[in-house]
Amino acid sequence: DDVDPALIGRTKELAPKHLATLWGLVEVFEGFSIGAGVNHVSSRNTFDPALTLPAYTIATAGAYYRTGGLQLSLILNNLTDAYYYGSGYSFDRAFPGAPRAVSLSASFAF
Q: Is the pLDDT reported for residue 58 higher than 90?
């Protein structure tokens, strides 16, 4: 039991009721793969009972090339450039999620 009766039965702040991720990866030819996926987060309570952060879904895609010990990755996050709130505490502290972004990385394994 909680000492504050108003909190009893209320979902914990920033904890979504539903969270889902779906990702697929296929090797197109030896050494080259492409993948895509979606992340969904349902609405979340904040520390302000009057504010609920809305649900959002983000799509991601990537291309990967591997030869020998070298791996190159090109990742596109938030493909649709969806505007969403990744986190927040109150009306004056609600933090937007990352906009569309592209990243290129290289790694080498010895």
A: yes
